[in-house]
């Protein structure tokens, strides 16, 4: 099996849309990952962001730690190598996590659900080394928000739904990560070294990934329906797209949130990536997400998943939590335990012990 490429320009063109919709259905149902080409994002916006990544991560530790994630109850800011845990193992990546700048509503109204604290203001790095840092990041986020809505419309039509039928599930909590992986001289793709462990995306409705390194630098792998790990190498001019866990729920398991991982690159070259997670409405309940299940009757749709994929930690899929927001908070606390201990002491032990 290979990762298909969807040409968004053709998918939005009525002349090509029938074939494009068939290709999109195949990508979503049979593969779970796809490359998106001709996406329409201004190349200058992309290149401005890509160009600053080596400089950004080469900053002194003191500068990066000035916006340390542990300072933010919203899980926004910088986290160093080994600070995040996936599949119970420390991830060997450093990253800046940025979101829509939103007010901290729960500080004003403590009666709001605890997961409301996931939304709040960013910590913006201040450095003369990258004069337009905030402008470039915000320009990219704005472009990705527009692209995500365009693609959701195309996806809905490919799945036989009205074009706007999936918009009500999305929310204000879009997130962006700027990620750096150091090469590991000992790493080989026969003996994997964990950059990010196997997981299904929980942060967004859909994920749009920019692989911001040379095409020869591999790392991302996706788990096929048959249980084999497939390379997803960078292809210039494309973004990699996959579905989040909420999308799997709303499609009654027809479109799986496909398991994937990142291996540390062998050799001497660093790897950079920029995933954008389209926001999910935090107050969504499973009942809200079941409104389309009649359309996604599994008797009419082919659906399958590997045994390893079914074992991936997915609390919302397993019906442990009623709202998407609480399931997401639980995942964040388990992944960033220093933040959990500092800002969420009242639920820390509950979430850490919930396996």
Automatic annotation (TrEMBL):
SUPFAM superfamilies: Clavaminate synthase-like. GO terms for molecular function: metal ion binding; oxidoreductase activity. Keywords: Iron, Metal-binding, Oxidoreductase. GO terms for biological process: small molecule biosynthetic process. Residues 172-280 form the Fe2OG dioxygenase domain. It comes from the Eukaryota. This is Fe2OG dioxygenase domain-containing protein. The lineage of its organism: Eukaryota, Fungi, Dikarya, Ascomycota, Pezizomycotina.
């Amino acid at each position: 099996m290979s990762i298909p490429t969807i040409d968004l320009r053709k998918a939005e063109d009525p002349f090509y849309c029938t074939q494009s919709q068939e290709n999109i259905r195949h990508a979503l149902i049979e593969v779970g990952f796809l490359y998106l080409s001709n996406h329409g994002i201004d190349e200058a916006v992309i290149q401005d962001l890509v160009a600053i990544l080596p400089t950004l991560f080469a900053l002194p530790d003191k500068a990066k730690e000035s916006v340390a994630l542990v300072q933010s109850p919203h899980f926004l800011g910088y986290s160093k190598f080994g600070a995040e845990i996936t599949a119970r193992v420390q991830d060997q990546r450093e990253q800046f996590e940025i979101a829509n700048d939103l007010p901290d509503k729960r500080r004003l109204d403590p009666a709001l659900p605890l997961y409301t604290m996931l939304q709040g203001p960013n910590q913006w790095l201040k450095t003369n080394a990258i004069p337009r840092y905030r402008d470039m990041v915000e320009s990219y986020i704005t472009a990705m928000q527009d692209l995500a809505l365009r693609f959701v419309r195309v996806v809905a039509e490919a799945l036989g739904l009205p074009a706007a039928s999936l918009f009500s599930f999305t929310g204000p909590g879009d997130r962006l990560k700027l990620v750096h992986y150091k090469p590991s001289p000992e790493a080989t793709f026969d003996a994997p070294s964990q950059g990010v462990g196997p997981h299904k995306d929980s942060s967004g409705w859909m994920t749009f990934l920019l692989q911001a390194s040379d095409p020869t630098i591999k790392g991302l792998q996706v788990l096929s329906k048959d249980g084999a790990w497939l390379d997803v190498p960078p292809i210039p001019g494309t973004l990699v797209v996959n579905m989040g866990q909420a999308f799997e729920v709303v499609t009654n398991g027809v479109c799986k949130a496909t398991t994937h991982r990142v291996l540390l690159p062998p050799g001497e070259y660093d790897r950079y990536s920029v995933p954008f997670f389209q926001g999910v409405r935090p107050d969504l309940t499973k009942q809200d997400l079941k409104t389309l299940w009649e359309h996604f009757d599994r008797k009419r749709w082919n659906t399958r998943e590997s045994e390893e994929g079914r074992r991936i930690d997915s609390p919302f899929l397993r019906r442990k939590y009623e709202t998407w927001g609480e399931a997401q908070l639980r995942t964040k606390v388990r992944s960033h335990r220093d933040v959990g201990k500092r800002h969420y002491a009242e639920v820390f032990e509950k979430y850490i012990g919930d396996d």
